[in-house]
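Posting for a labmate who doesn't have an account.
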Amino acid sequence: MAPELIETLLVTADRSLPLLGRHLTRLAASAQALSYRCDEAAIERDILAAARGLPGLEPQRLRLLLERGGQYSIHTAPLAPLPLVQEILLSPEPLDSREPLLRYKTTFRPWYAKAADWLPAHPQIFDMVFFNEKGQLCEGSRSNLYLLLRGQWYTPPVECGLLPGVQRAELLETGQVRERVLEVDDLRRAEGLRLSNALRGWMDVTLHDY
């Protein structure tokens, strides 16, 4: 059975969807590349309707799952606040940058299974960060990675083995970050560390050392 395509969107307290256009663009591109049917107009309509119908005032997480045949489902849940200090942990296991599905957000993510099982029991660790077979930094299991080097923010290029996140695309397009191959050693010499995803934005983190 083919994996489902995933888009996870932030619904703000006023029920807006800040990155909806980027999510729909990425979904359509992934569907075309992987031969999935995708009725973008219908999906946008139903996402907007689901967001408008949410109760309460707190931010919400909205998750869209698209099957190969074009069927889709939408699920929502409150977005819990994070602790003030968030850390990252470097995974001991490398990714294979040649794996094509790293570039698409699907339900088939076996390379992140251990991280997904481990992270809920360690709430102070926001994400586990991965490197590839060449020792180059890739991404977190649920976020993109950024390092501040000599006053400039950098994020690894997709070719290193990572998902091109929608918040990452926004930061690149607005000139706040640039792409650059980053080595594992750069983690400790960086002047700052940040992660981003569509739910949490662009956030400062620290490196957890045992």
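Reply:
Got it, the structure tokens are right above this. Residues 20-34 form the longest helix (15 residues).
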